[in-house]
Please model this.
Amino acid sequence: MNLDTHKLGICVIGSGRAGMIHARNFARGTARTRLVALADTHGPTLQEAQRELEVETGYADYKDALADSRVDAVVVVTPTSFHKEIVLQAAQAGKHVLCEKPMAMDVAECDAMIAACKAAGVKLQIGFMRRYDSSFRAAKQRVESGEIGDVVLVKSLTHGPSVPQEWMYDIRKSNGPLAEVNSHDIDALRWFVESEIGEVFAIAGNFRCPQAARKYPDFYDNVAMLCRVENGKQGFIDGAASVGYGYDARMEIVGTSGVMFVGRREQDSVVGCSTAKGIVQPFVKSWRTLFTEAYAAEDQDFADCILDDRPPRVQGIDGRMAVAVVNAGNRSIAARAPVRVERMKQ
Ligand SMILES: NC(=O)c1ccc[n+]([C@@H]2O[C@H](COP(=O)([O-])OP(=O)(O)OC[C@H]3O[C@@H](n4cnc5c(N)ncnc54)[C@H](O)[C@@H]3O)[C@@H](O)[C@H]2O)c1
Model:
């Protein structure tokens, strides 16, 4: 660790859409850290990120970043299929890890990542930033205070606006929208019901992406998943990609004596009213804007848990259980039947 500067040296691996959110935080706002390097296999993306953030060191091969003694911790923000390999190598090199969701492709990969980080004595945090969002946190506190009685049902939805990138069409490479879009819902559901999802029944179809249908017949852009929770509570997850109208992330918690709603639809507080269009208020455009503060808090907490030597708030087990539910959901879609979620080995 950089004891001379007392600042945690960070390298962001993967400087695409999500990577740049973390990189901007570490370059500009996260206390007690400094962004010492970026890594990306795509030259123009890497150079553009270096230029914007004025970071001198850029690596085409992330392994060179792991050999850089100024790097204490890495943020893994590559496509999901690369997470396992990079996290195993990072652990072996003694670097702490913040790994974006979905943690990996299957539970075996997650278990290997958890074991490698434990053996190396490095922190492993998973990027479920809704746990850092002020509204989700306030809802959690109010539910815990008994405001709506006991939790009965948690309904969580995420609809993404954009047309998926090609690697996401291939379910074998991406695990589909259940992984890429709904991992956050699965984690939030587990968080609010305080138990594990034991069984799921999912249905899915491709309604908005005809361009993908021929080459990727298994691709779905809409999914509905019913969840049986081990402690008897109920869950429902609604996922959609390529919706166009905006980024929609909301949750409804039904209790024995009330209900709670989380998540806003409005981009800002401006409401227009015209003779021609009636009331007009723009929808939230992107996860980047909706969760800006949550990502910043997540990155700060990652740095703090390393520097203060305490466990991360969102751990490998959380990533692992979400992946187990994604895998069960995809099996359920294919089998057209309910599927048990793979449990932890005792
Ligand atoms: N927490 C969130 O809300 C959130 C939001 C978006 C994406 N994500 C996750 O972040 C990850 C990346 O998604 P994205 O949308 O930013 O993708 P992206 O395609 O925009 O960016 C990925 C970047 O990784 C680079 N890359 C690919 N393989 C690499 C390798 N082996 N080493 C280094 N760089 C490599 C690519 O060149 C690209 O620039 C995914 O796991 C995704 O699910 C999380």
